[in-house]
Design a protein that fits this description.
By secondary structure, this protein is an alpha+beta fold. The chain has 10 helices and 18 strands. Helix 7 packs across helix 8 and helix 9 packs antiparallel against helix 10.
């Protein structure tokens, strides 16, 4: 959504100006990624306010007029009484602003970010390509910590500005923890890898599970069936909660419903977790241009877990953006 459209939405919601601190939202609106406290004042004549030390860089990269941010108390003098703020604005920052504002909390910018432009999709695709290339170059040996560090190093070498999040490398019994941190234990089977790269501030998020035993393969096949059927139901107009239901119903039919411990997926873009959530409580309908993950999993407590995650572009004919096989071996 272009800035004029967002401003029109603001006016419809009765907001004169929207005060934006969140780096991802500032980048979305201006193209500039703030490295220190910056403020985007979204109004009819928007302005990006940055500290003096960042002025030059901001002027070179921002598509919006840039001015110096001197202090929050001084800023309040130019703010309207009717002010919109982001849900992420913390109380301490608001107190520094001072003043008697009629505050309206809105996630308008986050809602705008849900639909990706062709350029945004291109950045996300590049992040996926970097992450996948790096995984295929990784030697699956040593400790979980060693493998995770090597994977993050390879992503840097291949063009990622940073890992999209702390890489999950969880094997054996620890693979039954959906968000396990890496350990100093040697890698064993199965091995759940959840990793992502960042290209031009846009993230990727993928999971693969490497298996060996017959029981692991049985569980893997169930998870993959759930994922495939969920992906086939993705199209504009379908409720996000329905995608979750399709995946969850299949896993439940096999008797593992209670072992599917998280939602089926989420949006990805400038942040790894964005709207919409593919959960039973999300009634939002999918729209063309959304990029979402589909990541069912089964986690057998004390034994092992399996998760398969791919990123999907919602369209009339929805497209899986990942290219590497779902089944990988040691």
């Amino acid at each position: 959504m272009e800035i004029p459209e967002i401003i029109n939405q603001m006016h419809e919601e009765g907001i004169e100006s929207l005060l934006i601190f969140k780096p991802e939202n500032i980048t979305y609106l201006s193209g500039y990624w703030p490295t220190s406290t910056s403020i985007f004042l979204l109004k009819d004549d928007p302005v990006l306010l940055v500290p003096k030390l960042d002025l030059k860089e901001a002027e070179e990269t921002s598509t919006i007029e840039v001015d110096e941010l001197k202090s929050l108390p001084k800023l309040k003098k130019v703010l309207p009484v009717n002010l919109g703020v982001e849900p992420s604005l913390n109380i301490a920052t608001y107190q520094k602003l001072g003043g008697d504002f009629e505050i309206q909390v809105t996630d308008l910018v986050e809602r705008s970010r849900v639909i990706k432009s062709d350029q945004e999709i291109s950045h996300i695709q590049k992040a996926i390509n970097i992450a996948e290339k790096s995984l295929m170059e990784l030697e699956m040996s040593g400790t979980e910590e060693d493998a995770a560090a090597q994977l993050e190093y390879l992503m840097r070498q291949n063009g990622s500005s940073k890992p999209a999040f702390d890489t999950i490398m969880a094997s054996g019994r620890r693979s039954s923890f959906p968000h396990a941190s890496t350990s100093s234990e040697n890698i064993e089977s199965p091995l759940v890898i959840d990793w992502g790269a960042v290209h031009n501030h846009y993230a990727s998020d993928t999971s693969r599970t490497l298996i060996r035993t017959e029981k692991e393969e049985e569980i893997f096949d169930i998870v993959l069936e759930a994922q495939n059927k969920a992906i086939k139901t993705i199209k504009p107009g379908v409720k996000a909660s329905y995608i979750d239901k399709v995946a969850r119903d299949i896993i439940t039919e096999y008797g593992y419903g209670e072992s599917f411990l998280h939602s089926t997926g989420h949006g990805v873009g400038l942040e790894v977790h964005e709207m919409p959530s593919l959960s039973s409580r999300e009634n939002k309908k999918l729209e063309s241009g959304m990029v979402i993950t589909v990541e069912p999993g089964i986690y057998l407590e004390g034994r092992f877990g399996v998760r398969v995650e791919d990123m999907v572009l919602v369209a009339k004919r929805s497209k899986v953006l990942n290219n590497i096989d779902s089944r990988l071996s040691f």
